[in-house]
Design brief:
Blueprint lengths: L27 H46 L8 E6 L7 E6 L13 H5 L1
């Protein structure tokens, strides 16, 4: 609330001006309005902070996904379906061994009888 004498902006909870010391004659409505304005400002700051956090997290997530996508391109099997498996040698630099890639769907197996499992 502004002081009538010196125009200093005082919090709504004080009875006297913090600059000149004059008694502030505040009504209930003025105090209520001041507190509502303060609450609205705090709410706006909170929303702004949450929005900035969301933007930062979204950018970090995007960069992570972009990095994983770039790394995944080097790991894809080639046209002849060869998978590169690291082969380590003690005397030389690490090399890669070519291993054929085969997808074998699970075979339909009949369940074993209980007496076979007990043996």
């Amino acid at each position: 609330m502004k002081c009538i004498l010196c125009s200093f902006e005082n919090p709504a909870t004080v009875s006297y001006c913090r600059q000149c010391g004059k008694k502030l004659d505040l009504t209930h409505e003025e105090i209520k309005q001041s507190l509502q304005e303060k609450a609205a400002q705090e709410s706006a700051k909170s929303v702004e902070y949450q929005a900035s956090q969301f933007v930062v997290l979204a950018a970090a997530f995007f960069l992570l996904m972009l990095t994983l996508q770039i790394l995944a391109r080097g790991m894809r099997p080639s046209d002849d379906h060869l998978v590169f498996v690291p082969a380590v040698s003690l005397n030389e630099k690490a090399t890669y061994a070519e291993t054929p890639f085969e997808f074998l769907p699970p075979a339909d197996a009949a369940p074993l009888p209980l007496e076979v499992l007990a043996k």
